[in-house]
């Protein structure tokens, strides 16, 4: 099992390094280039905020629906095989999306939605199994570190992809002799993202079998599924994730349609946020040792709310830049803290099911908030949307505070069978 654990010097295993490489490489086109450009491409096709909300929510509903099946596929066919299949499906969905402008008019409304479903189904298969894969490939004492490193590399890939995504439409505008208010430069840039994403599959082919250590750990656990704590975490995820969703789904559209910023400026602003997000997860192990992962979850959710307030209170681009940097950097800390906190509450044999459940909650949050957001923007504007997102994140922070207080008074003692502390 030497390839599944760390060496005596504490270095990460070969499989762990390969999984981190795949995660970082996928982040560049998925979280970077196409996250910046896909909404702008939809806007250039002539659609409004209601369609943008529908477009985002359909993908999130697909992610929600695939949360538990993705975990089940990993158990049935193997984690590595499921991640490979999911990665390939993601690439196909990303590559099909920019064909929209070449289709007949009767098909153009449905095509972005259909490709969004394909892309998201594949991404769920990859991402839901990534955390159990990292767990299986990493010794207990290294797991907080591996999640922080994963967050950092994902942030690095996202930062590079965001800046690249902001520059590509201008490059293709010149090469194709098309104006920047036409869809073609954005579609060409999205094809670049699909091509880059193929490189993320290469490390996965070299990963070994990941099930051995997970099976060994699961044999030690006998308790029932912890419905109460997982249910409370689902509600926390839904609320805390909601503030991030408001930013992720509509911030670039706000900067483009309302503030009239050029694509390069949008890419730079989001890129600065992703640069901060690349570094911020490195604080997690220190914060966890000092105050705990639950405290980190509560404080980062509260920080996301505070970061949305400048976007709600001001229509000037510096306020949007400050808010975006705050939201992106704090959400990058929230995710690894959630992963570790969930592990500490759930026995090993239930971790895949619990994480699949939380992934479903993330998908539901993204879907419902995106769908609602499109109509909120159409009715009362972008700034009201960001104010609503701030309020939702406050509720998520308050719920986590209540969970921690309840644990201190006997609601559910934390499990420390594999804690990093």
Walk me through what this model shows.
The protein is mostly helical. It has one domain (2-408): Up-down Bundle (Growth Hormone, Chain: A). Helix content is 79%, strand content 0%. It contains 16 helices and no strands. It has helices at residues 14-44, 49-77, 79-96, 105-108, 110-136, 143-176, 184-197, 201-205, 211-218, 227-258, 263-279, 284-290, 293-313, 317-345, 351-380, 382-408. The longest helix is centred in the middle third of the chain and has 34 residues, at 143-176. It is globular, with a radius of gyration of 21 Å. Mean pLDDT is 83; it is low at 1-9 and 412-421.
Protein topology:
Blueprint: H1 14-44, H2 49-77, H3 79-96, H4 105-108, H5 110-136, H6 143-176, H7 184-197, H8 201-205, H9 211-218, H10 227-258, H11 263-279, H12 284-290, H13 293-313, H14 317-345, H15 351-380, H16 382-408
Summarize this structure as a short list of keywords or feature phrases.
single chain, 421 residues, mainly alpha, Growth Hormone, Chain: A, 16 helices, disordered N terminus, disordered C terminus
Approximate helicity band: over 70%
Q: In percent, how much strand structure appears in the residues?
A: under 5%
Gyration radius, rounded:
21 Å
Annotated CATH homologous superfamily:
MFS general substrate transporter like domains
